[in-house]
Amino acid sequence: MLGTILILIGAIFVATKLYQLACWVRFYFMLPPPEQLRRKYEEPGKRPFAMVSGATGGIGFGFAHTLALRGFGVVLASRSESKLEECAKKIQDDVKAKGKGPAEIITVVCDFATPTEKWLPALVKACEGVDLCLLVNNVGVNNPFPQFFTDHTDEVVEDIINVNIRANTFITKALLPQMVKRNNGGAVLSFGSMFGPLGAPMLAPYSASKAYAYSFSLSLYEEYRAKGIDFLAVNPGYVMSNMSKLKKESWLITSPMTCADTVLRQLSFPDQAGYTWTATHWAHHLQYWAATRLVPERLRLQQIQKIHVKINKAAMRKKAREEAEAAKTQ
């Protein structure tokens, strides 16, 4: 009798793991076609629109560019008017060159580090006259290099809280009601980081802000699922961007365009294929799995800190050289 029960428990365990593996393979390798996203959210006679924050570089530009190529209108939000105009023109030119029809781009200047009343009304107004169905809450900032928490300047900590937490929270709160009214629902992408759930010594405020993005998205996923709004937390590993300072794509480092293509196709699955978050790339997901399942937490944190200490020392040496050179020229 006991043997039969143990065999049954073992069979259930194996079946569960095989099902999880099959879901994972489907989510990362059996992606819907690119045009499926528009089919999922488009309403008859209307062009679907997406709002992309932090849209003038890196991941944000990758999403804005990819969405425009797939027939979405895009509201670009960032703090630099000149960069917004440059990015809008590049997207429009690329869409036209590929024969995808004229791209519809709206730009809004938003300094997300400032109080919300200074930029949120303009963003809401820009989105009022369009069929908004997708929020790409990408904007984020980090410390220039890893530092012990007490060495972070107050300005840097305030910027991380204001941009990574406050701005993305109030953007969602302000624009979500417009999406709930739609017949075909909509979606919100909240950008975290692999460092959110893993922790990152010497980048504590940044890591904590990214953990917030994941928890915020996970909670709203259940709140608004019945109302047709999809929430997907995006916790990437290494992606080429100005923030990461990575310039070359590899199997462990993805480009912004690859990241955008994968995430938007994953979002195209009905109910996101049962996933509430994505690592954006199968290799990133395996990194996360190994870090959380194979490496003891204390050892993982120690190794991350060792890496960050080396980066900190190199950055401090560079800063000292630059200050010395500046002093000579005075």
UniProtKB/TrEMBL annotation:
The keyword Secreted does not apply. The keyword Ribosomal protein does not apply. GO terms for molecular function: oxidoreductase activity. The chain crosses the membrane at residues 6-29, 49-69. Keywords: Membrane, Oxidoreductase, Transmembrane, Transmembrane helix. SUPFAM superfamilies: NAD(P)-binding Rossmann-fold domains. PANTHER family: RH59310P. Belongs to the short-chain dehydrogenases/reductases (SDR) family. This is Short chain dehydrogenase, putative. The lineage of its organism: Eukaryota, Sar, Alveolata, Perkinsozoa, Perkinsea.
